Amino acid sequence: MELRSNFPVGSPRWATRRTQWKALGLSDEDVIKPKIAVVNSSSKLSPCFSHLDAIADQVVEAIREAGAVGFEIRTVAPTDFIMAAGGRGGYVLSSRDLLANDIEAAVEGGQLDGMICLASCDKTTPGQLMAAGRINVPTIVVPCGYQPCGILDNGEPADIEEVFMKAGHVATGGITIEDLCTISDRAIAGPGVCTGMGTANTMHIMAEALGMSLPGSAPVAANSTAMWENARASARTIVEAVLAQRRPRDILTPGAFRNAVAAVLAVSGSINSVKHLQAIAVEAGVDVDISALFAELGREVGPLTAIRPSGPDSIEDLEAAGGALGVLTQLQPVLDLEVATIGGRTLGEVLQRAPEPDASIIRPLHEPRATHATIQILYGSLAPAGSIVKLSATERRQDSFEGSARVFEDAAEAIAAVNAHQVEAGTVLVLRGLGPSGTPGMGMASNVVFALNGAGLTGQVAVVTDGQLSGLVNQGIVVGEVKPEGALEGPLGLVHDGDRIRADIPAGTVDLLVSGEELERRRLTQPAREPAATGGWLGVYARTVTPLERGATLVPEAAPALQHHHYAKDS
């Protein structure tokens, strides 16, 4: 077959590329084979990525055995817990899009024929899938596994999510520094992503539900036999996909996104999946409203699993019970079974061969762990473009809350007020300026919620924010990712201290109880907000990011698709 990586023989570009590749040790036969990018977001900054180099080496070798050539390429490696320390947390989400650009520059610039993406921490999987949808070369995602966690002396598990949550209790005396450090010392016992159904494991499951990973690939323990087998099988599959020209835009259809939303609901996945799925859809040119899909499917799909932090079961339990493949098996009545997968079979054909899941861990669709969806989409006069609430899979929390607004433009100031006992019961704590434009890059509001919990105010104080939230935030009334964000024109930016706000989860509403006339008066008299950053990468991001309802991508509303072609002549 004709490969785009092979320019016409004899042209200057063909000759110079051949010279470069021969210098790397490729033979004359290698130079004309399919050329696969092995996308490696490796970093020694975090254990999420510390094992990826060894995986990349194995994948390159497996690609060679399958008759192609693998070229390892590197990208930025976004990791929340490390990189959120700077830029008010804005480097984390913005690095998702930087990663997509890294991939485009290497794969599209080099005119490589396909790519295999080593997926790890939260933003790598969506960033890789965004790039796949954008450049539309055959792509497969390889989940690289979750880390082992430790055990405390009392037999309780210790993981990084516990460290994250408990740290909010230090200032109020809920835990000592010494005890926090004891948990911290034992929380991570090896490489891989955070245990539990946080964003990373949700993204790995989402990739499989979209058809962009091999069936049975997620979740998986890092460096386990299953992970290594899947990596090698994925290498063989991507070579087949290149030869068959199975492209992402043939797989990433409206039906595939619907299937992914159902899977996220079934596993009580991360609320970050809403914006990431929307971003992937935007990059792939798919006209789908992900928030509307969550609202619609939430009426049909309850939580079929209860994995920490949404319930008592572990990620190891989910893997042993059948993983994402088992979840999709139970979801068949609501799935589009005709969608394609990267392996060449339809989802229906895949599920016909799937083993029966362990129904004690992955419940049937008609016997969910709870009757409510764990991701709730709220609309209303405060969030006309939507907002998100995360619920537990096993415990129903408060259904509604009404109170007086206390507005903060900075998370640190809000935490200081909570710790100083300056936030009273009955308050709706409004935290704005943490959206993609306002931070810029999107800041984390979870620490404010953990401070409220440490102060004993859970259930007595509600939170409304345009920031993103951890999956650990599933108690009390906490409304996140309010759209439009506070830095843009919209109701959230017009809230004043003392305004009444009401959130009603069963009704799916969050409302600012202020007249339209008063809001219009405020809009006309309120000073324009200054940009949060003007220099560096965050400045570039702030000037180009689209609203959160479009996934906070850097893709303009009417951006043309990249042109894919073979070079007829040297240029």
Automatic annotation (TrEMBL):
Enzyme class, broadest EC rank: lyase
Source organism, top-level taxon: Bacteria
Record domain Dihydroxy-acid/6-phosphogluconate dehydratase C-terminal: where: 361-552
Record has Amino-acid biosynthesis as a keyword: yes
Enzyme Commission identifier(s): 4.2.1.9
Assigned keywords, A-Z: 2Fe-2S, Amino-acid biosynthesis, Branched-chain amino acid biosynthesis, Iron, Iron-sulfur, Lyase, Metal-binding
One Pfam family matching this protein: ILV_EDD_C
PROSITE patterns given in the database record: ILVD_EDD_1 (PS00886)
One GO molecular-function entry: dihydroxy-acid dehydratase activity
Tagged with keyword Repeat: no
Dihydroxy-acid/6-phosphogluconate dehydratase N-terminal domain mapped to chain residues: 33-349
Family of the protein in this entry: Belongs to the IlvD/Edd family.
UniProt-recorded name of the protein: Dihydroxy-acid dehydratase
Species, as recorded: Citricoccus parietis
